[in-house]
Amino acid sequence: MHPLHFSLLSPSSPCPSTLSLRPASLPSYPLFRSFNFNPSSSAWVCASGAGALAPPPAISREPVEANSVAETRENETGEMDKYREVGTISTVHGVKGEVKVVSSTDFPEVRFGKPGKRWLRTRDGGKESIKEIDLIKGRCNPGQNSWTISLRGINSIEEANNIVGSALLIGSDDRPELHEGEFYTPDLVGMRVILKETGMFVGTVVSVMNTKGNDILQVKPNLIGREEEDSSNSQILIPFVEEIVTEVDMERQEMQITPPKGLLELNSRSTVGSSKERRLMEWKQKKKSQQRLATAKKILNDMEQTHVLDALRLAPKAQKTSLAKQIASIDFRLFQHALNNLDKHINGLSEDMEKNFSLLLKNAMKISHENLLGKESERNKFHHEMREKGLELLSNSKAAIVLMINEKNKIGNSSEIDDDLRNSLSDIGEHLMGSQGRPFVMITATHQVETLQKYLRDNSYFGMDLQKVWVLEEGRLPVFSMTSDQSGSKVLFKSPFELLEAPIGPGGDLSLLSFQKILDTFNQMGIEYLQVCSLDDKSSIGNPLFFGYVSSLDAGVGIKVYNGNVGDGTCFDLIISMKHMNKISRDAKKLGFCAVAEKHRYVEKTSEGWVDVSPEASNLRRLHFPVYGLLNTCSLDDICFMNVLN
User: Fold this and answer.
1) Rounded distance between C-alpha atoms, residue 440 and residue 432, angstroms
2) How far is CA 6 from CA 9, 19, 27, 467, in A?
């Protein structure tokens, strides 16, 4: 079996050397591979067909010619010249000075069969020199990856022997014109690699390895926010075959992949060093997962939730894995804190909190909406200074944005993006355009993540640095029932071997930044302030005056409200210092929460098996951590208010 090769660049070539995106193996029937042009996205999409009469447009490349010697060399005159290597002179042929050249180009007919100017790179005593030479003629050697050529001035065996081992070069700007849908290897370098199924950013292509089998993309992985013991030499190797690379979009500089299960994980392991080191890392990762599950099981046992452990023990293999993952992902710090303090839960803002807010509002900075947007701030010296201070923070990439998309901004499917969401994302992208170093996090419901990622990808991330963009699933906690005397609780199941869970709320979602190691990344980046806001028309995302105001007061938390109305916590706009965010991650047990009474259908394990339960009373509790619950972690002196009047 041999890989299928074809090219429209040299259809009649007796010895083609085209390397193109190909099937992994040749089937028994003719299979031709093409990339069909999608006008709506300027992308080339993989398409295959059986029994075609002629190959459709292929993606062809000039791999080694483009990869290996698109480099700058300094000649003796000190000028900088650029060349690309197309072959190496291997042996002398005959007695008239002809030589054989081993091809390393996709265009041998043009490079070795067409007379014209070429260059020879030779080495003499360790010194490299490049000289111009004319190619007179050339002919292909059938069955070999070589050509026999005649060069002007090389007329004898002795003269031919002197250039054996030399590289034959062309000018770096000498590129044959490609057909629509074709591209060169260097054009792949720098492309973003996207996982088609989820929209996850995998990494960036750094080079292409040309092998006798399939060409291999070398991809530098996206390590932001990921736990890596040693990422200095980390890379992912992805075969450049049609089963894996399904779309190449030159305009957006990205390609989509559908790798087989385990390929990315295998690559991660294979770049860690020796097999002993890889086994050690695998063992550590497995051990860590086992320890996390063991800790979770111990906590559940201490909480007298043994029915969950019984379900885990009795679950079939597939459900056991899923349930174990669900159990291990529970934030038990928040869950235990809430269950142990149900009598202290808050209903909206407590009376003390309302008094504190009233006091803070009296001392709040009052500003018109026009001034906030900078339309009149130049007239007010204080506003101008605050704005300049905020601009300095933003331009020096000392600020990050966390956008929380609540139920009001339901996404639905990709064709039903909410107008508010679409407009807000466009505005955000416009504001962050060109700000390469500013991190951006979006937290949304599980079922919305893929659609949001696709929307961002389809819009080229609105110019944001996608290596510093995260789309996270909102946190969830188990729903539980209360005993009749309110003295005990029981975690519930949505279906057999699946826990009933509910969103944790924006206050609890902040813990995701710590759990996902994003907070550590922010600290490493030198981020000083974090804006946490809901997606609505009252949020001033990246507003320099707001940032400058909070920074000038050295406040731990800054809250912006409109007309003195704090609201119910579904719409919010806060700026939190990284110093205080680090404190929150350590003192999560101090976060304020609500225990919301609700009715949910659930299932329960009995002696007769699993049975459906539809409670008549609202005896179930859903834990909710509102955003203003984080104010329990700081003193009034650390909080400042901005009251926008309109």
Assistant:
1) 9
2) 9, 8, 15, 36
Provide the b/e sequence for 183-216 (b: ≥16 CB within 10 Å): bbbbbbbebbbbebeebbbbbbbebbebeeebbb
pLDDT tens for 446-486 read: 877 877 777 777 777 777 777 788 888 898 999 998 876 65
Q: Looking at 155-159, 326-330, 420-424, which range is the least confident one? A: 420-424
Q: Residue 105 in 3-state DSSP?
A: coil
Q: What percent of the chain has pLDDT over 90?
A: 25
Please check whether residue 345 is in contact with residue 629, taking contact to mean a CB–CB distance below 8 angstroms: no
CB–CB of 183/248 below 8 Å? yes
Q: Report pTM.
A: 0.62
Backbone angles phi, psi at 548, to 5 degrees: -65, -40
Q: Which two tokens stand for residue 527?
A: 């981020």
Residues 144-158 have pLDDT tens digits of 889 999 999 999 999
**In this structure, what are the phi and psi dihedrals at residue 316, rounded to the nearest 5 degrees?**
-60, 165
Tell me the torsion sign for CA atoms 585, 588, 591, 597: positive
Instruction: State the greatest distance between any 2 C-alpha atoms of the chain, in Å, as a whole number.
Output: 106
Please report, in angstroms and rounded to a whole number, the separation of the first and last CA atoms in the chain: 74
Instruction: List the one residue out of 135, 105, 121, 133 whose CA is nearest residue 73.
Output: 121
Q: What pLDDT score was predicted for residue 424?
A: 61
Average predicted confidence (pLDDT) for the chain: 76
- The burial class, CB within 10 Å (0-12 / 13-18 / 19+), for 143 is exposed
**Alpha-carbon gap, residue 324 to 644, rounded angstroms:** 48
Residue 629 pLDDT > 90: no
**Dihedral pair phi/psi, residue 427, rounded to 5°:** -65, -40
Give the range among 90-104, 546-560, 585-599 with minimum mean pLDDT: 585-599
Residue 10 DSSP symbol: S
pLDDT digits (tens, 9 = 90+) for 582-616: 888 887 777 778 888 888 899 999 888 899 998 87
CA atoms of 465 and 460, how far apart (whole Å): 10
Alpha-carbon distances of 175 from 19, 358, 441, rounded to whole Å: 16, 71, 42
Classify each residue of 27-49 as buried b or exposed e, where b means 16 or more C-beta atoms within 10 Å of its C-beta: eeeebbbbbeeeeeeebbebeee
The stretch 26-48 carries a mean pLDDT of 37
Task: Name the region of 311 (left: φ>0; alpha: ψ -120 to 50; beta: rest).
Answer: alpha
What whole-number distance in Å separates Cα of residue 348 and Cα of residue 229? 43
Contacts made by residues 428-434, CB under 8 angstroms, sequence distance 24+:
428/401, 428/403, 428/462, 428/541, 428/542, 429/459, 429/461, 429/462, 429/463, 429/464, 430/462, 431/541, 431/542, 432/401, 432/462, 432/463, 432/464, 432/542, 433/462, 433/463, 433/464, 434/463
In 10 A of CB 295, how many CB atoms?
Answer: 12
- Inform me whether the pLDDT recorded for 62 exceeds 90: no
